[in-house]
Every structure is written in C-alpha cells, then in structure tokens.
Amino acid sequence: MEFSAEMIAGLIGGTIVGDPKAIVNNFAKIEEGKPGCISFLANDKYEQYIYQTESSIVLVNNNFEPKQEIKATLIKVANAREAVAKLLQIYEGMKPKRQGISELAFIDSTAKIGKDCYIGPFVAIEEGVEIGDGCVFHPHVTIGRNAKIGNNTEIYSNAVVYHDCKVGNNCILHAGCVIGADGFGFQQTETGYVKIPQIGIAIIEDDVEIGANTCIDRAVMGETIVHKGVKLDNLVQIAHNNEIGSHTVMSAQVGIAGSTKVGEWCMFGGQVGVAGHATIADKTMAGAQAGIPNSIKKPGTGVQGTPAIDAKTFWKSSALFKNLYQMWVDMNDMKKEIKVLKEELASKK
What we know:
This protein is α/β, with parallel strands linked by helices. The chain contains 5 helices and 40 strands. It has 2 domains: 91 residues, 3-Layer(aba) Sandwich (Udp-n-acetylmuramoylalanyl-d-glutamate--2,6- Diaminopimelate Ligase, Chain: A, domain 1), CATH 3.40.1390; 213 residues, 3 Solenoid (UDP N-Acetylglucosamine Acyltransferase, domain 1), CATH 2.160.10. Helix 2 links the parallel strand 5 and strand 6. The longest helix has 25 residues. It is flat, with a radius of gyration of 28 Å.
C-alpha cells in the first residue's frame, strides 16, 4: 500500500512543507529512516536526526522550525505522536481480517459463535459460551463454560478466559494472559491453609488491552472489574475483587492486592505495588516501584518511593540520600572535634 503526502495530510489534518507527491509505503523510526518510509519527530532530543534521515516524509509538530536544510517532506500537525498513532491505526485496519473456523478447533454444540469470526487450530470453546461478531481467536485459546466475549475482540495464543467471565467489545488479550483464575484466598488453620472458594467472576469492559501473561483474578464473591479503556502491560497482577477505573494504564509488573479500588485515568509505572483494601483517587500518578500502603484520597496526586510519598519530596530526599555517607563521616568528625574542645575547656577550669 502506498500513500502520498497529500493523502496523509488529508487523513490527519496536516500542512505539507515540501513535495505533496512524495510517496511512502512503510513506517520507520526517524534515526533509521529509509526512502519510502514515513517517520515522526515529537521529542526535541531526536531533532538531530531530522537533518540526516532518509525517510521521505516526517510528521512534526506545528511549532517546529528547522535549523538546517531538511531533505524530507514535512507534514505539520498539532501533535505528531497522536498523528502517527492515528496513521498506524488506519494502516492496521486496512489489513485483511482472518475469518473461518479451523477443523482442529473444539467448539461445544451449545456455544454461540457470531458472524465473521476466526477460530484457529486447537482453540477450545466450552459449553454455554457466547462469542460476538468479528472476533479473532489465535491457536490454543481456551474459553471456559458460560463465558461471554463481545464483538471484534482479539485473543492471542494460550490466553484463557475462565468460566462465567465476561470480556467486552474491541478488546485485545495478548498471549498467555488469564482472565478469571482464582484469587489468592486461603484461611489459616492449626493444620495448614484451607482454600476459600472463589465463586465470583471477572469482567473486562470494552476497549481494554491486556498484555502477555497478565492475570486478572475472579472475585471471592461478586465481581473483579476492569473498566472501559484500561490498558495493562505484560506481567500485571490484578487481584480478586479489585476495580480498575476507566482509562487507567499500568506498566509491566504492577501488582494490585485484593479489594482495592483504583480510580479513572491513573498512571502506574513499572513494578508499582498497591496494598489491599485501598482506594486510589482518580488521575493518581505512581512512579516506577512505588509501594502504596494506604489509600490516596486527593485526585491528581503524584507519588514515588516505598512507602510511597509525594513525588517531589521523594526526589528531594533522594538527592540528599546519595550524600548520606559523607554526612555521616562529617558528623563523626564534628563529634570528635566537639569532644576535644570540651576536654580543652574542662582542663582550663
């Protein structure tokens, strides 16, 4: 598929600086650009590459003013990062969608399969399952009994949706993720731990993307809910009876303990941990490896560190911490000097 600068500008509402007939058929990072590719510049740290790139077209922000000559045709837009994301979505959407049911798939006779679905080899769909239109299930996907999957949802190989759980429309479940496994529920007794049956379900609402090997546990009773538009990275753990607010994003290895409610539009960096039974306000920003032991009540709070504290306070404290050893040495030297001074004063009495 080939696109001219003129066509691209029309799709994203951009202004062309250069040749409107420039043609591209692929994407490339600006530092790796080749003829026939389109790149973008959204970070000033990469500006040097726009003067060297071989890409035919580069998307730039409206306020970009070149300091040297540029060979590529530029398309100026309000936000270059958003524009390239839109183009990638258009490009991906133009690819033909797979359809058909493999002879090697197992589908229970009571299951209901929507129109225009693709069900690959060794997919297992158990009794009472309902699958919407336009779904794509890659090989070795398992859908447990009475589970429900919405329209246009894509599930990659070896992902599992347990019994009775629900996945909405336009979701993406990456390889190896598990929806609805038992929560970590055990009662300690004198002779060991007794399992507490997890009789609730897990619900994934529309437009959610879940990374590879991420686990969303079913509830003890009631529901674990991941609301509309949430994006979870690989290796994230969402424990039983959690509620994750809409449009929240979590990076790799985040862990949310049970019965915690996370607000909308939150952003958690890698390896953030949240204690159980906490409530996290909307738009909370937690830096990588933050350990959050209690509720955060003020929307828009930024935290960092373990236990998590105000992010600005954390970074100020970190600046002091690297000098802590020298401060300790200086303090001991001062103590020795004070001792000598005391002894000298005592001898003069």
